Amino acid sequence: MDSDYGVPRELSEVQKKRALYQPELPPCLQGTTVRVEYGDAAIAADPAGAHVISHAFPHTYGQPLAHFLRKTANVPDATVISEHPVVRVGVVFCGRQSPGGHNVIWGLHEAIKAHNPNSKLIGFLGGSDGLLAQKTLEITDEVLSSYKNQGGYDMLGRTKDQIRTTEQVNGAMASCQALKLDALVIIGGVTSNTDAAQLAETFAEAKCATKVVGVPVTLNGDLKNQFVETTVGFDTICKVNSQLISNVCTDALSAEKYYYFIRMMGRKASHVALECALQSHPNMVILGEEVAASKLTIFDITKQICDAVQARAEKDKYHGVVLIPEGLVESIPELYALLQLLLHPESDDSAQLSQIETEKLLAQLVEDEMNRRMVLGHVCYHILAAGLNGYMATVTNLKSPANKWRCGAAPISSMMTVKRWSRGPAATQIGKPAVHMATVDLKGKAFELLRNNSTSFLIDDIYRNPGPLQFEGAGADSKPISLCVEDQDYMGRIKKLQEYLEKVKSIVKPGCSQDVLKAALSAMSSVTETLAIMTSSSTGQGTPL
User: Fold this and answer.
1) How far is the C-alpha of 343 from the C-alpha of 26, rounded, in Å?
2) pTM exceeding the 0.90 threshold for the entire prediction
């Protein structure tokens, strides 16, 4: 064991109180029997790249969705798993640290021990480096005691967030085989889950017994698709940042003579900036996606801010707060091309945008012209109990109370897209399939809500303080505004569709009346024709450029 990891923390009285908090589990995760219903085979999120993805992942592409059911569910063909042999499960932190990582491990440990007390959870120390070097720590109640409901990744630590080369993949497989692991759980974001999918495929090809499961944990909130409504850590980071922004807003309103430029984390995707703006109501927020869509230059953005400052000055307001995402420069071509040459790259070869003090850059330009948790751990056990490989743990219907959350699993390969680059008259598919970050949807309801309120945010000082992070009492059940306003629960709707199809099959059987048969054929013909048109029109869209 490495002396730097797994050491019990010295907790304050508040931390001790928080460590006693027990998160609520949805009914489908309670008890010791695992009930799973398999849906249809999942297709690629990127229809145009489906062939490339299926070719790259022949063993793990096209696997069915999995829905975990509560004890009272009446699903005759559900798979019921009541016998739980001893398992050895490895877990590793990858990527940037994010709130909630320790609770994922706590939930996984709790589920493993509840189903068989002799099973073991083994943590890899120092991220992917520890995985390759077989540096481990057995996770026990004693180790977990001072890390429950606490932030950070320091229980196990993390380093670089990729397992990409042939040598690294083979090294990871060798570690899993040497430690006789039944499953490997990778906790991370888009890059880490892409690596998880590749490991799952390679392990299946080599007939390695270890199953690989991914958990979407990233504070940026950019691992978002039809299967993943939000990521572990996004809610917490937005609440904490929103309170800090609100404190700055209060200071600006009190002094009445300062403009504050606050840089938000998030790289190219501005989800954190958007959510914090909806929660704290700063005077202005610049979103990278909006800048890219409008092809704005740095001087266009500067003019926008200056116009806002002037409009407020005409109302005798000489203070304000502006939010700026750290990845804003990536949306400004003339700056990003230069910065790629000057900055050390990230693990995915993109520019390390967190090194750029964008808020100082914009503040200076404006000045010159005028003189930016637990549940998924349990889901992981259900996934490995069902023997699934290459899946990501999913929890949907998150804007409802916990007892109505839907827990399941989706193949990571179905979340992949293939990057395209414009060369000549048409875009060409280049590179390996990957889980790519999702940017803010400028046609979505969250952005629409921000746009509808942007004028009042700009002129009227309606700053809002959501308060500190709470585990109980007022504000404890508050959820991200951007999550609540969107119409999601994709997994629930897929399941509902399957129920309707089963009803049709039960009604329209050989021997049914001519009228019933004709009505069914007419309805199905109309539906399939409409869906075919919608599918063909969307092919090739939604792919990163």
Assistant:
1) 45
2) no
Q: How many residues does the chain have?
A: 545
Largest CA distance in the chain: 84
Q: pLDDT, tens digit, for every residue of 288-330?
A: 899 889 988 888 888 898 999 999 999 999 999 999 888 787 7
Contacts of 104 (CB under 8 A, 6+ apart): 187, 215, 217, 232, 373, 374, 376, 377, 380
Q: Are 377 and 105 in contact (CB under 8 A)?
A: yes
pLDDT tens for each residue of 345-401: 554 445 455 555 666 656 665 655 454 367 888 999 999 999 999 999 998 888 888
Q: CA–CA separation, 414 vs 66, rounded Å?
A: 13
For residue 154, give Cα distances in angstroms to 8, 102, 159, 452, 531: 10, 9, 11, 41, 49
Instruction: Enumerate residues 6+ apart whose C-beta is below 8 A from 408.
Output: 65, 66, 67, 68, 379, 394, 395, 396, 491
Domains in the chain, ordered, with CATH? 13-32+84-216 (3.40.50.450), 234-372+439-460 (3.40.50.460), 496-522 (no CATH)
Whether the Cβ atoms of residue 97 and residue 68 lie closer than 8 Å to each other: no
